[in-house]
Amino acid sequence: MNPPTDRDELVELLSRYADIADMKEYDKLPGLVFTDPLTLDFSSVADIPPMTTPLARYVEILRGSFAPFAATHHAITGHVITVDGDTATIHAHVRAEHWVPRELAGTGPDRWLVVGFYDNEAVRTPDGWRLNRVKLTATHQENTHLSSAALAAQQAH
């Protein structure tokens, strides 16, 4: 078997990124995926501005954001990757599904769907490629009232 190329490693990096939420693996995977600190922009799906944050803080944000969901599935495809020395840009399509427990959904829908694109940046480190910037641009959503932010607001009232 041939050694992996930068492209192979970067596609695998995004697969590991999806696994953090889908497998609820917040201990080992974040350190294999992200730099510390990292810059995030999820403003297209949540009412929060882009931010640069320490990795430990982001891991806690992830835990809280995905806690309400019984299951999630993030399919990241169509990778367009440009490598320039020790930096890379990755544009990819995403379809992210988030199911809430039936007791939270009641008689309504139980799935929040987000479709869009990731435009991420990665850097080569001594330990391999790591994402240092993640930007999600949602182009379509269904049942946004089931997003973790909306559910948290409901539970607070």
Unreliable parts:
none
For the largest beta-sheet, the strand count, sense and barrel status come to: 6 strands, mixed
- List the helices and strands in order: HHEEHEEHEEH
N- to C-terminal separation?
57 Å
Number of β-strand runs: 6
| Helical fraction | 25-40%
How do the strands line up in the largest sheet? 2-1-6-5-4-3
Relative strand content? 35-45%
**Overall geometric form:** globular
Q: So how many helices?
A: 5
Rounded to the nearest angstrom, the radius of gyration is: 16 Å
Mean pLDDT comes to 94
Strand-pairing-aware structural class: alpha+beta
Short note summarizing the structure:
The chain is an alpha+beta fold and 157 residues long. The chain has helices spanning 6-22, 29-33, 55-66, 102-105, 148-156; strands spanning 34-41, 51-53, 71-84, 87-99, 111-125, 128-142.
Give the arrangement of secondary structure elements.
Elements: H1 6-22, H2 29-33, E1 34-41, E2 51-53, H3 55-66, E3 71-84, E4 87-99, H4 102-105, E5 111-125, E6 128-142, H5 148-156
Parallel strand pairs: 1-6
Antiparallel strand pairs: 1-2, 3-4, 4-5, 5-6
